Amino acid sequence: MAAYAQPNIVDGSNMPPLGYSDTIAVVLSGANPGAAGANVTWDFSAQSPMIAGKFTFVDPATTPYGANFSSATHAIELTAFVGGTMYEYYTVNASKWEVIGSNITGSGGDDYTANGKTILPFPFAYSSVVTDTFTKQSSTSTVTITYDGYGTLITPFHTYSNVLRTKRDFGGSDYYYDWYITSPYLMTVATYDNNNGRLTFIGKSVINSIHDIHAASAHVTVAPNPVHSKSTIRIHAEDNIQGKIIVTNVTGSVVAELPVYKNEATFSREGLSSGLYFYNVVTKNGSVAKGKFIVE
Known about the structure:
Immunoglobulin-like; 14-stranded mixed sheet
């Protein structure tokens, strides 16, 4: 086992620059966050995440809702392939990095401007524990943040050395683990949500271009649609896609897994009820296209 120096967080002076962008990939459930401690290896290489969207560091003042979070020093634009765009607003100062607006869209979001929610205190060293109060809308709560481990993080996309992990505990089973790098930027590279077992990888995706994923998503056809007997699901791409197409019903149950051959798969509705169904094109790099069709 390789031994690493404890990565200490001194301040937030090396946050990612404006325009820094990468992908977000998600394992929806069943992940195990691993142990706390020194020189830990958190190995998630066997996970099969789906590519869910991208993030971009932006100037808060240029965002649609920046005027509502005028004290923000940093902002992130989150673009999901399903679900649209939302924004995160932060203040970073000499003593902490805190969120003042989360999941912000035109229909609302979580407003912490009355008393921001701390993400990281500064400085922060291994085994340190900090408790902070924050106010969401008009409700005040408490979070305890513990620097509980450091070592190596292995994701399906990248291996990070000298990462640190924190636990954000809101009480009971409501807690999160966050993995950070401190160089070249201070940023989160993975997050585990104990409420649903979801593991999110942030950045270093092996997908070459976020635009390629959008293109793939925009060029999948199901014909005929509605499906009466059989249909062809066709992926319009320059290269052959190696993977499978997972079909689910409205409850999320898998009803078919179709092998892809020469960018096509044949779907049969035999034994299935009429209604709405969803397809997910999955490769070794995760989900690259999603859509829906009707069975009649």
